[in-house]
Input
Amino acid sequence: MNKGTLFIVPTPIGNLEDITLRAIRILQESDVIVCEDTRQTLKLLSHLKISKQLISFYTQNQLKRIPQIISALENGKNISLVSDCGTPAISDPGYYLVKEALSHGINVIPLPGPCALVTGLVGSGLPTDSFIFLGFLRKKTGKMKKELIQAAQTEKTIIFYESPHRIIKTIEVCKEVFGENTNIVLARELTKKFEEFIRGSIGEVINEMKTREIKGEFVIIISQNSKNIDSTEEEEFV
Output
């Protein structure tokens, strides 16, 4: 029996028009769709008029699910991996499934498509020739600051994700590390009705955010200048 194929299928990050024709076809032809939240994926599939078996796959159940998914692939099932939005395996456990599939000799085919970090970067107006992506930063202030200091040493544009309830605290830490005059862009609600790019110096953006009600997930882009970096030695952070 021939093994199945694992397809990595990006889904819209907000605007449902952003799914590709190829992605729709692959979802239609797959035997199973592996997704983060079955309720979220059902909304998309309902919009596309697609009905398929769904298997939930997220951080808390990945150790249990991976052997089941690999077994199905080895038995000839074609499986699509999707996340709640955007490209799977970016800041989610899809990476582990892809790695395991490859180790079992299973064909993995990635599709191009929506990705919040790239969308935010190209619309930011900040340098795009060389960048580093940090995913979601650590929650504790000291560890967050250490991550940013390490990223700063690369002297590349820095990109990461943040939730609305932590955004002000995070940019305040950025101010400590990079200085208040460093350029920053907050990309909010990308591709959705209230999409917004908040641009300026870190100091200006902090002041702006403190005057408004904060909603939506954020992509944060920083164009750093090494001379502004806090040079405190890493050993101070635990």
